[in-house]
Design goal:
mainly beta, 3 domains, Immunoglobulin-like, rod-shaped, nine-stranded mixed β-sheet, 380 residues
């Protein structure tokens, strides 16, 4: 119970006591807000009263409230208040004053203790992946970069934040690191900050593999809170085709594989059927599943990028037991023999390597394959 004593004559009451019942009222740094303060005309005549905060800390903004009150009438004065955007968390004592507009000497004041809190709307604006390969040979590792853009929509700022992320991939590939974290210090309102994280992706089995990167931003300090969680997370995914490495024997029976770029002839080659470990290959290959019409043969860079090379001269290959890479051994495995018109290969003079790329069927699925062998270009 709280009692007030008054004497006859003009008077005004400002009563902040009810605001503290059940805990100190919270005010958010940087946010405009309204505090309803109980007030009363304690006099015997109608009067207009001005209510305001006085002695505010530096950087705080407030708007007064004026009201015509009849004798003995009480109501709430809705006082607008905006604490400084970076005011420290903790208790702050304010003063609320009421004064007669016609007789300013008729006034009263009351202290109001408020709890300043920090609330920011941290957001992830987007994620992008740079350097992700479309195709990657099994056993090879590719470096890529994930860029994440974040901002702070206030009202409290600057805000220390942390960005945490995970990287996951389907069963036929690996990505590292699997988790990461980054400190984002003093993020200002409307500032856009970009972070980068580098990853290594390795293919382990043939086929399309999906790599997913997910991130979440949170306030770094336990006393800070976030306005909404819906924009705190984001993810981006890329698909990498893991390509099967194969053993290729160009011109079986020839140790030097001579090629005359101006010749009108054809270049024979065999894609060898192998078991895992043959020629250092990580995965077994049944070359009889090759789709000859899908293949291209020529310079390594053009063939790998599927931007050039010759197609199979006959539109089909034939299965045969080709010589192995030692040009002596015949191992009894059925290999795939293909032919390509020399002038269509695009192999330039001075080349020391030529490659073939295409598709093959295995286990009910279709995979890409790629393999190279040494060559020696010779004059016409």
């Amino acid at each position: 119970m709280r009692a007030y004593f008054d004497v006859r004559g003009p008077g005004v009451l400002v009563d902040t006591f009810p605001l503290g019942v059940g805990g100190k009222p919270e005010v958010v740094a940087g946010a405009p807000q309204t505090i309803a303060v109980p007030v009363m005309n304690t006099g015997e005549a109608v009067d207009t009263f001005d209510f305001s905060f006085t002695g505010l800390p530096a950087g705080w903004v407030a708007a007064p409230f004026s009201e015509l009150l009849g004798p003995g009438v009480d109501k709430t004065a809705d006082l607008d208040l905006e604490p400084r955007h970076d005011h420290p968390v903790g208790l702050q004592t304010l003063t609320v004053k009421g004064a007669s507009a016609t007789a300013p000497s008729v006034n009263s004041s009351c202290a109001l203790e408020v709890m300043v809190v920090h609330v920011s709307d941290l957001q992830i604006l987007g994620m992008e992946v740079d350097g992700a390969p479309t195709d990657l040979l099994i056993g090879d590792t590719q470096t890529l970069t994930v860029r994440t853009r974040v901002t702070n929509d206030g009202p409290t700022w600057p805000t220390d934040a942390t960005l945490h992320g995970t990287a996951s991939v389907s069963a036929g590939a690996a990505v590292a690191p699997a988790t990461w974290g980054e400190a984002i210090g003093a993020l200002a309102k409307d500032e856009i900050r970009e972070t980068t994280e580098t990853f290594e992706v390795t293919c382990q089995a043939p086929g399309a593999e999906t790599i997913t990167f997910a991130t979440e931003i949170k306030p770094a300090k336990s006393e800070d809170s976030d306005l909404t969680a819906v924009n705190n997370t984001a993810l981006v995914a890329v698909v990498v085709e893991c390509v099967l490495p194969v053993a290729v024997n160009i011109k079986p029976g020839s140790p030097i594989n001579p090629i005359n770029p101006g010749s009108h002839g054809v270049v024979p080659l065999a894609v060898l059927t192998t078991v895992a470990g043959d020629y250092g290959l990580p995965v077994a290959v049944d070359a009889t599943g090759i789709d000859a019409e899908s293949t291209r043969f020529g310079p390594e860079d053009l063939v790998w990028a599927e931007a050039g090379g010759a197609s199979e001269a006959h539109g089909k290959g034939h299965v045969g037991d080709s010589l192995e890479l030692d040009e002596v051994t015949v191992d009894g495995d059925p290999d795939m023999v293909l032919h390509y018109k020399t002038q269509e290969t695009g192999i330039p003079p001075g080349s020391s390597k030529a490659c073939v790329k295409g598709k093959l069927s295995a286990g009910g699925s279709v995979f890409k394959f790629f393999g190279c062998d040494s060559v020696r270009t010779v004059p016409p």
